[in-house]
Every structure is written in structure tokens, then in C-alpha cells.
């Protein structure tokens, strides 16, 4: 069983597989696997036509397996084979996957919910308008931004990528990019925006007085869902984050039902912010281990 490093040229392999088995977790998107490799060393192998991914946890150095969402019949074949090869720990399983594994191998695996890794899922229709009492505070930020700035929305293209990178660099400085996780996010975002076309990403930006002050990147991962991978803005413009999010959904993602805004990583401020948008549901993530 020989795992190989994930390269950009491997995207067609993942695209073909994910067309048959659509993914809703941001962790399994090819963009995530490819762009975050400076932080997490993802590798993959194709077993009997099915993709299996492994990585080493940067904290405890433990090796975990990621299995894309598939049919239970696939799990029935893959898990014993992985077990024989010594792979007994799984990460970022969906609730359904844990139920399927328990049904197939009763009492053989234990699972733990990873609240910090749950994906926040929103209705695109609500995010495009931010209407309603529960989202009133978010709409106020947008209204303030509109009142204080004459702005325009535009798609990200090769022509404005350098300006977006300037926003990213300013964000990184504000966040003191010497921190490992922030530095890794900056590297991942840079890799994503420089390879937008190859990664099939959509991007949107907001321009004020001739200057880009916010941008975002996302992709469709299933017929009914898009994932927003990165969202950066100039902190000097109040309401820029809320406005770029609303405009991006309104202009690019009205043909999907759900918007996945990824996890909060256990950051209290980020959790509060993501909950304040009133998610439709949380896509729960679990770790699993052989007993």
C-alpha cells in the first residue's frame, strides 16, 4: 500500500471519484488537501478504485486515515484492508460514516465527536440577503459599509490577483503571521489564489476608491453545496467581512442550497462569529479508533 504526495496534477483523479461520491466536508475537498500541505502532509492511495488519504497529526504525530463519503459497501471492503496494514485510526468521519462502521463492525471501533472541527452549514438564500431578525446585526454591518463606502463587486481574475495578495499580506501582518497556524493559512490561501483556475475555484472581491479591500475564494463540492475556503479583508473597513460574504454568495452561489463555511478550530471568537450567522446545521466530525 504505497501512499503518494498529493500534487496539483492529481486533481482529475479526485474529480472523477468525487463526481461519483460527492463530498460535503471541507476536509476532503481537493483544495484543502492540496493547499494545506505545508501544515499537514496529506498523502493518498487508490485502493480498488477508491481514494484513501492519510496524514500525520502535527501535534501528537499520530497517523490518521481520511475516508471520503462513500457507500457502506465500500467501507466494508476498505476498513479491514486498512486494519491489516496497521491503519486503525480515522479522522473527520461524518456521523453517517460512524454509524455505517458501527453497523458493519459492531463494538470494534470507538468514536469521539470533534466539536472544534464541525463544519458550519448555512442556507445560501439567507446569506445572500441577511434578512430577518436573527441576522439583523450582520445586515447592520453591511449597511454601515455601504453608507461609508462607494464600492463595487468583481470576480477575481489573473488581473486583480496581485491586489488580493496585498490584502492577504496586510491581514497576515495584522494577525502577526509569525504564528504557525496563521502562517500556514496565509501559505494555503496564496497557493489557492495562484492556482484558482487549476483548482476550479471561484473568487470575489470588493473594490473601494480603486482599491481592493476584501476578497474570498470558494468552490462547489456537491450539487447542493459550495465551500468558502478563504475570506480576507482590510480591518480598517468596518463591515468589509460581512459585505464580501454576502456579495459572494449573492453573485456566485445562488445555484446551490447550502454554503459550508468550514470549522472554527476551537477559537472562541471565530465560533461566536460563525454561530451569529445562524447556521442551518453543523456537519459533525468524529475521530474513530479500533478498540
Give an account of the 3D structure.
The chain is an alpha+beta fold and 291 residues long. 38% of the residues lie in helices and 26% in strands. The protein has 2 domains: 4-118, Aminopeptidase; 120-262, 3-Layer(aba) Sandwich (Aminopeptidase), CATH 3.40.630.30. It has helices at residues 11-20, 30-35, 72-84, 95-104, 124-129, 136-148, 161-174, 180-194, 196-199, 240-252, 268-275, and strands at 4-5, 43-47, 50-56, 63-66, 89-93, 109-113, 119-123, 151-155, 202-208, 211-222, 225-233, 258-260, 281-283, 286-290. α6 crosses α10 and α7 runs antiparallel to α8 (180-194). The radius of gyration is 20 Å and the shape is globular.
Fold blueprint:
Elements: E1 4-5, H1 11-20, H2 30-35, E2 43-47, E3 50-56, E4 63-66, H3 72-84, E5 89-93, H4 95-104, E6 109-113, E7 119-123, H5 124-129, H6 136-148, E8 151-155, H7 161-174, H8 180-194, H9 196-199, E9 202-208, E10 211-222, E11 225-233, H10 240-252, E12 258-260, H11 268-275, E13 281-283, E14 286-290
Parallel strand pairs: 11-12
Antiparallel strand pairs: 1-2, 2-3, 3-4, 5-14, 6-14, 7-12, 7-13, 8-9, 9-10, 10-11
Poorly predicted tracts of residues: none
- In which order are the strands of the major sheet placed? 8-9-10-11-12-7-13
Return the structural class. Answer: alpha+beta
Supply the number of structural domains: 2
The share of residues in helices is 25-40%
CATH architecture of the largest domain: 3-Layer(aba) Sandwich
What is the number of beta strands?
A: 14
Instruction: Give helix and strand order, one letter per element, not per position.
Output: EHHEEEHEHEEHHEHHHEEEHEHEE
Put simply, the count of helices is 11
CATH level-3 fold name of the largest domain: Aminopeptidase
Mean pLDDT: 95
> From the structure provided, what is the oligomeric state, counting identical versus distinct chains?
single chain
What's the CATH C level of the largest domain? Alpha Beta
Specify the biggest β-sheet.
Answer: 7 strands, mixed
Within CATH, the superfamily of the largest domain carries the name Gcn5-related N-acetyltransferase (GNAT)
Strand content: 25-35%
Query: Gyration radius, to the nearest Å?
Result: 20 Å
Shape: globular
Intertermini distance = 23 Å
Amino acid at each position: 500500500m504505497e501512499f503518494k504526495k498529493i500534487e496539483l496534477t492529481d486533481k482529475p483523479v479526485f474529480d472523477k471519484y468525487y463526481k461519483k461520491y460527492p463530498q460535503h466536508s471541507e476536509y476532503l475537498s481537493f483544495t484543502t488537501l492540496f493547499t494545506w500541505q505545508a501544515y499537514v502532509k496529506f498523502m493518498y492511495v487508490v485502493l480498488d478504485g477508491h481514494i484513501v488519504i492519510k496524514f500525520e497529526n502535527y501535534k501528537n504525530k499520530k497517523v490518521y486515515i481520511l475516508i471520503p463519503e462513500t457507500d457502506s459497501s465500500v467501507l466494508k471492503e476498505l476498513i479491514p484492508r486498512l486494519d491489516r496494514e496497521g491503519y486503525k485510526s480515522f479522522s473527520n468521519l461524518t456521523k453517517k460514516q460512524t454509524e455505517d462502521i458501527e453497523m458493519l463492525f459492531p463494538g470494534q471501533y470507538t468514536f469521539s465527536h470533534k466539536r472544534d472541527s464541525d463544519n458550519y452549514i448555512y442556507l445560501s438564500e439567507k446569506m445572500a440577503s441577511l434578512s430577518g431578525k436573527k441576522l439583523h446585526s450582520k445586515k447592520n454591518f453591511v449597511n454601515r459599509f455601504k453608507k461609508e463606502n462607494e464600492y463595487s463587486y468583481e470576480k477575481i481574475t489573473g488581473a486583480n490577483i496581485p491586489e488580493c495578495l496585498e490584502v492577504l499580506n496586510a491581514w497576515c501582518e495584522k494577525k502577526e503571521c509569525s504564528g504557525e497556524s496563521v502562517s500556514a493559512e496565509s501559505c494555503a490561501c496564496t497557493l489557492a489564489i495562484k492556482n484558482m483556475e487549476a483548482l476550479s475555484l471561484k473568487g470575489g472581491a470588493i473594490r473601494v476608491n480603486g482599491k481592493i479591500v476584501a476578497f474570498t475564494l470558494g468552490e462547489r463540492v456537491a450539487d447542493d453545496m459550495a465551500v468558502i475556503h478563504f475570506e480576507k479583508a482590510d480591518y480598517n473597513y468596518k463591515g468589509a467581512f460581512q459585505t464580501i460574504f454576502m456579495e459572494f454568495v449573492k453573485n456566485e452561489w445562488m445555484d446551490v442550497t447550502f454554503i459550508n463555511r468550514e470549522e472554527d478550530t476551537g477559537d472562541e471568537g471565530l465560533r461566536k462569529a460563525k454561530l451569529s450567522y445562524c447556521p442551518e446545521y453543523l456537519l459533525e466530525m468524529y475521530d474513530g479508533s479500533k478498540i
